[in-house]
Structures are given as C-alpha cells and as structure tokens.
Design a protein that fits this description.
Length: about 150
C-alpha cells in the first residue's frame, strides 16, 4: 500500500480506470448512474485535493481510498474503490485499516448508496453507525455513517 499522487498522469489513468469500474458496479447496485466519480474525467481526478492511498497487486492498482480532513478531529472518507475483478478479497477493509493507522482521528465519516449492501456491511462491521439517509434522486438514497473512537 502506498500514497497515490493523482498529479502523475500515468498513475491517475490507472486510478480513473479502477474508479470507473468500481462506481459502475455501485451504480448498478443502487439503480442510479448519476454518481459523480463515475463520470469524472482525467483532468478532474488530477485536480482532486483529496489524499489518496492505493493498494496494489504487484504493479496493478486494485483499490484506493480518498480522504479529507474537514477539521482536526475528523477524517472524511470521500471514496473507497476496489476493482470489481478484485472485490470481496479484503482490499477495501485493508485500505480502511491502513487509513486508520496512518490518520487516527476521533471521528470518521463515510457515505454510500443505501442499496450498496456490500459497502454498508463493511462500514457497519468496522463500527460505523448510520447517521442519516438523504434522497438524491427519485428512489435513490445515500446513507451517511459516523464512527467515534477514543484515542
């Protein structure tokens, strides 16, 4: 696992490919293809101000997590992606574990499509609790989660 530099064009291309594949699966799960990262282009990704960690199988990127710090006590996980060819192999959990080790914060926030059962189960299994559901389109909801830790 290592930090991803999205300003590097070759790295960003690999990341964008995995991102599009991962969000295509989520779009199918939740019945909504309006997920912004699904339509992000290379320039948009390279302009991202998020911090990124990537998980590799040799030289191939298999997953990544993007995160931000809205305040000193909080890490906001803005994207967690795993290439569908490598799904259900522990990569998402490993990325979250590494993020916890690198950036321990009392509060961690994340959201996902409510019908994205695999992601929801992952977050609940890691101690996240649902805080709210927001309707983003007819019949489509996003669930927000929060985890509080004593550090």
């Amino acid at each position: 696992m290592r930090t991803i530099d999205v300003t590097d064009a070759e790295t960003a291309k690999q990341l964008l490919t995995v991102q599009h594949r991962a969000y295509a699966v989520e779009a199918e799960l939740i019945g909504f293809d309006g997920i912004p990262p699904l339509h992000e282009d290379l320039a948009g990704l390279m302009a991202s101000t998020e911090h990124w960690l990537g998980r590799y199988d040799g030289t191939s990127l298999v997953g990544a997590v993007a995160y931000e710090f809205p305040d000193p006590d909080t890490v906001l996980i803005s994207r967690l992606i795993v290439d569908p060819a490598h799904a259900r192999q522990g990569h998402g959990r490993a990325l979250l574990d590494r993020l916890d080790a690198l950036e321990p914060r009392p509060t961690s926030l994340v959201s996902t499509g409510t019908k994205n059962t695999p992601a929801t189960q992952l977050y609940l299994s890691r101690g996240y609790q649902e805080t709210e559901r927001i309707t983003v389109a007819p019949g489509v909801q996003v669930t927000h989660f929060r985890r509080l830790l004593e550090l």
